[in-house]
Amino acid sequence: MAEIIIPTPLRKFADNQATIAVAGDNILSAIEDLVTQFPDLKKQIFDAQGQIKRFIRIYKGEDDIESLDNEKTAIEADTVISIIPAIAGGAN
Question: In whole angstroms, how far apart are CA 81 and each of 37, 48, 62, 76?
């Protein structure tokens, strides 16, 4: 099974787990499995239209899926997927 790394701000929606094993053959099916396991994550990751929110970055290993095949990017059993939510703020 592939593994998704849950960022600290989202862990409270995933029983405080840092990593979660997921099933699927592409990024979207893996994330859908994740939100099936932890329904509270769904509204944190998906918008009202069922699309991954624009400000969330997803990586397959070291590669942003936008440079690959987006949500259709194929995954293997040893794939590590990272969810990176945008962080706002900074100095003036």
Answer: 16, 23, 9, 11
| DSSP classification of residue 42 | H
Greatest CA separation for the chain: 44
- Residue 1 in contact with residue 80, Cβ under 8 Å? no
Can you tell me the distance from the alpha carbon of 46 to that of 43, in angstroms, rounded to the nearest whole number? 5
Give the residues of the chain that fall short of pLDDT 70: 88-92
**pTM for the whole thing?**
0.90
Q: What angle do CA 66, 2, 71 make, to 5 degrees?
A: 25
Domains and CATH numbers, the chain: 6-84 (3.10.20.30)
Supply the DSSP string of 44-70, one letter for each residue.
Answer: HHB-TTSSBPTTEEEEETTEEGGGTTG
| Mean pLDDT of the chain, nearest integer | 94
